[in-house]
C-alpha cells in the first residue's frame, strides 16, 4: 500500500525523544510506558512500533520516535514529567584521536 503525503510527512518529521515518567506503583514499567504512549498514538500496536527502549532502573521513562505534535500531546499526559529530544554522542576513537 502506498503512503499518503500525510503519512510521509509524519514519519519524516518524527524524531527520537526520551519521555521521563513517574515510577508506576501498581503496574510493570514497560506496561505503563506502553499505555502512556498508546494514549497519544491511538493503539497499543502503534505504541509498540514507536517504543525504542523502556528505562526501569536509574530512571523511569522510555524513548520513542514521535512527531512534534505527538511530543506536545504526550507532554500533557498524567505522570509524564519531562520530554527531551534524544541525542547521539560520538565517542573518541582512542588516545590522541579526536574523530
UniProtKB/TrEMBL annotation:
<protein>
    <recommendedName>
        <fullName>Inhibitor I9 domain-containing protein</fullName>
    </recommendedName>
</protein>
<dbReference type="InterPro" id="IPR010259">
    <property type="entry name" value="S8pro/Inhibitor_I9"/>
</dbReference>
<feature type="domain" description="Inhibitor I9">
    <location>
        <begin position="17"/>
        <end position="92"/>
    </location>
</feature>
<dbReference type="InterPro" id="IPR037045">
    <property type="entry name" value="S8pro/Inhibitor_I9_sf"/>
</dbReference>
<dbReference type="Pfam" id="PF05922">
    <property type="entry name" value="Inhibitor_I9"/>
</dbReference>
